[in-house]
Amino acid sequence: MFPPRAVIETLAASGMDYTLIDTEHFMTNPETIEQMITAAEAAGVTPFVRVQENVDLIDRCVSAGARGVMVPMVNNKEQAQEAVNAIKYAPIGKRGVCNPRAVTYGANGLENMLNFYKTENDNVMCILQMETEESYKNLPEILEVEGIDSIFVGRFDLTHSMGITGQFDDPRVVEIVENTLKMGKEKDYLWVLLLFDGEDTNKFLKWDMIG
Questions:
Q1: Most exposed: 62, 116, 139, 174, by fewest CB within 10 Å?
Q2: 25 classed as catalytic
């Protein structure tokens, strides 16, 4: 069995700039997540983590040093605010201050910790997933939440929620994705899409709406 940290090191050696550690669809315990974050940092790769719905896991991931957290199935403003609260410090969120690994366990002194608290909100990303019809309908309200850095448009789950799994060229899906990207461009958000081949990629590049 290939150890998780070796996967991170292999990605780094292949020239990757960042990695997304997925705990939504795969069984990964917090200790392994922390080891993978540590391996990523040592290899010069920026670590992100996709969590499940547990906000406690969000806090532990950023405390361990994750530079961004992707939160799936964000369907309304309240869920978006809950994610921001767990990822960001006050005055934007409600993340608790302490001396975790992300701030070297406080080993560099109080001043270093205070500087970390002041700058961390600008150095950690809150990435929310828009992947249901409900989320799309509530997107204008979701985008009102301060502290969101990026929106991931999950077309697979979106089509599944519409009863047309994998039919990405369905006019309804195309309209939703196009309108979503337009909203993102107006708000100056960084938008993320999972693309499947060259043709799919070129189609969206021609739209000139992906930040």
A1: 174
A2: yes
